[in-house]
Amino acid sequence: MPRATSIFLLFATSQLLFRPISSIDFVYNSNFTTTNTLLVGSATVVSPPSILTLTNETTSTIGRGLYPSRIPASSSSSSPLPFATSFIFSVSPFKNRLPGHGFAFVFLPSSDTSAAESAQHLGLLNLTNNGDPSNRIFGVEFDVFSNQEFNDINDNHVGVDVNSLTSVSSSVAGFYRDGSQFTELRLNSGDNYQAWIEFNGSAINVTMARAGSLKPVRPLINVPLNLTGVLLGDMFVGFTAATGLLVQSHRILSWSFSNSNFSLADALITRNLPSFKLRDDSVFNSKGFIAGISVGAFVLLVCVIGVVFYAVRRRRRLRLEEDGVEDWETEYWPHRVQYRNVLEATKGFAEENMIGYGGNSKVYRGVLEGKEVAVKRIAISPREGVAGTSEFLAEVSSLGRLRHKNIVGLRGWCKKGGECLILVYEYMENGSVDKRLFDCDVMLDWEERMRVIRDVASGMLYLHEGWESKVLHRDIKTSNVLLDKDMNARVGDFGLAKLQNTNKEMVSTTHVVGTAGYMAPELVKTGRASVETDVYSFGVFVLEVVCGRRPIEEGREGIVEWMWGLMERDQVVDGLDERLKVRGRFEIKEVEMVMRIGLLCVHPDPRVRPKMRQVVHILEQGRLSDDEREREGMEVSLLERMKSSYLLGTSDGRQQQHPTFLDVWNSSSHSNSFRSSSSIFLGR
Ligand SMILES: *[C@@H]1O[C@H](CO)[C@@H](O)[C@H](O)[C@H]1NC(C)=O
Ligand SMILES: *[C@@H]1O[C@H](CO)[C@@H](O)[C@H](O)[C@H]1NC(C)=O
Ligand SMILES: *[C@@H]1O[C@H](CO)[C@@H](O)[C@H](O)[C@H]1NC(C)=O
Ligand SMILES: *[C@@H]1O[C@H](CO)[C@@H](O)[C@H](O)[C@H]1NC(C)=O
Ligand SMILES: *[C@@H]1O[C@H](CO)[C@@H](O)[C@H](O)[C@H]1NC(C)=O
Ligand SMILES: *[C@@H]1O[C@H](CO)[C@@H](O)[C@H](O)[C@H]1NC(C)=O
Ligand SMILES: *[C@@H]1O[C@H](CO)[C@@H](O)[C@H](O)[C@H]1NC(C)=O
């Protein structure tokens, strides 16, 4: 900078002093090119017209489109620079593919994606750095998936993210008409939407509307925001998106950005833009006269169907209104069933149809639409009220989509005024594992117990890793594992623990939710449920199934302490259910292996507990294939070590040098007696 300019700046008015040293502004009106845009990962420019396309149909990719060079994000005194940006975007599903995952407008310190993951992490952060203040990442997410782990409000929201995918503020996507009436906009409808983001140095506004509409006066999000230390130095600015198992395309049609002229958004062309709505093109591709006629016929048919559909819908709507259904409720999946049908199915909740109860809920057997179902009726405590219920239902709606052979499927739900909530599940012919363990008439034999353990492990693996977002069960126990008619064990009641905190056997302080005896020590202490606390409950479950003994029994040591004791004396096999010992049909090596898995899962240090994936591998396969070995990398070496000690009982000298496992082991701050029991892991 020439000296004269610097001197001029020094003498300028105070207002000038606080102005950015160098301001930047640019406009892309569908003129993205490979030279004026930095394309990372799956991002490409598709022309004509030249549109930034962040993702394609490939699963688990990250795509970023950024301004080609870093721009100044803070002033010389390190205070974040104000900015205003506006862009037109389209998020549209692919034909015959389940749609998922959103995108974000971002400020990033670096363009490379090594610290980011795909799917629900939006190509922005990864599992370990999420929430880390040293990330220096600011974003505004437009997300179409409800991720429990990030406290997402629903599956169609806009959120302000600072160094974390747990938004500091978020709102359902949409706009306020005339300053008050809210209209939701479905982000992944394929429609073109315009978004405006304005940051004045201490507060942020996020606004959106259909492209071509005027900017709504009232912003969707309007919150104070301190970006000191986040917007710092020179940074990349642009867009990031990701696909997971679910895919959809994310397109940016035009974009303006400025940190001096807040009206630059007006320079965007918002009309006559291409449309990316998914349509059934087979009809529109047809050529010629015959095609013309068939289109005509089709249109007529569509009209007729439309009228019929409308009439049916209208009738249904009226019926729903009768039931007091609010609009949002019909959005949820699985679908709402009618209370009167449930009444009919259970013969008015007749006592003779009751198959179980606990706390504030009762379970009835019934027949709905010709299929046998289990109906769970949960009384809503007035304290929680409707707000708590709709929150819970949002969760049920995402849980309802879970499908796995070791998970009890949710078929529907309904609500009766403010009194109770009704969940309809698949009927499980053979009752709960709890009943099968402690009722001698129908007691499970060893083979069946092994199968139950394997099934539950794979059901939990699905909850933790198989679905797009991590789902915590929060209340694994023998009474929540049910057996279907083929004796497959299925995990039920996931997520319900939150709502059932009046159950008498539940320990419930302000935040802690779970069942006494199954709760990990750190859960009791902090109230924070995690994958590791689920693994702990699974460990107790395994021990309970193998020992045929409840986790807590009056006047006896808890099952975990008791088993640790046996292990220290090298007598784990003695813990086996006495009734099985009498019958004598079990594999002693298998008993030993399962006991050790159980014990490892209830390790007091959550970091030492295995992941469900590792448990499943040990249970399902004696050996791992070479492919898996490569894929799983380090984890396998830990697994191999565990396995060699479990299965072969041999000690391998090289183990002693394994950093991860031994580091963790040695740093675990537990009693010596505990550490001496390392023999179970390292072999003898
Ligand atoms: C895109 O086109 C606009 C004119 O509509 C022009 O002002 C702008 O500089 C172009 N942007 C880039 C990045 O080339
Ligand atoms: C989609 O993006 C991926 C990752 O960049 C790339 O390898 C693949 O070829 C692209 N697929 C299509 C159909 O363009
Ligand atoms: C996440 O990113 C950080 C850098 O921010 C990196 O150190 C870490 O290894 C990454 N974690 C994973 C699991 O990829
Ligand atoms: C946000 O919008 C409100 C209401 O229109 C306005 O008063 C305020 O100045 C805006 N703030 C920013 C940071 O643009
Ligand atoms: C930024 O906007 C907020 C309202 O959105 C206002 O309260 C605040 O004073 C503004 N800050 C500056 C520096 O203009
Ligand atoms: C903003 O945050 C920084 C550090 O993160 C802090 O020093 C500063 O006081 C905060 N400013 C306001 C206005 O809260
Ligand atoms: C800000 O941008 C608008 C829209 O392009 C333009 O009309 C206006 O002249 C600009 N103002 C300044 C001060 O550059």
TrEMBL record:
Binding site for ATP: 376
UniProt xrefs under SMART domains: S_TKc
Catalytic activity: L-seryl-[protein] + ATP = O-phospho-L-seryl-[protein] + ADP + H(+); L-threonyl-[protein] + ATP = O-phospho-L-threonyl-[protein] + ADP + H(+)
Keywords from the named record: ATP-binding, Kinase, Lectin, Membrane, Nucleotide-binding, Receptor, Serine/threonine-protein kinase, Signal, Transferase, Transmembrane, Transmembrane helix
GO cellular component labels: membrane
Domain of life, source organism: Eukaryota
Enzyme class: transferase
Keyword Cell division recorded: no
Family annotation (InterPro entries): ConA-like_dom_sf, Kinase-like_dom_sf, L-type_Lectin-RKs, Legume_lectin_dom, Prot_kinase_dom, Protein_kinase_ATP_BS, Ser-Thr/Tyr_kinase_cat_dom, Ser/Thr_kinase_AS
Topology versus the membrane: Single-pass type I membrane protein
Keyword field contains Repeat: no
Location, primary (coarse class): membrane
Start and end residues of each Protein kinase domain: 349-624
UniProt-listed SUPFAM superfamilies: Concanavalin A-like lectins/glucanases, Protein kinase-like (PK-like)
Assigned protein family: In the N-terminal section; belongs to the leguminous lectin family.
PANTHER family reported for this sequence: PTHR27007
Name listed for the protein in its UniProt record: non-specific serine/threonine protein kinase
Organism the protein comes from: Brassica carinata (Ethiopian mustard)
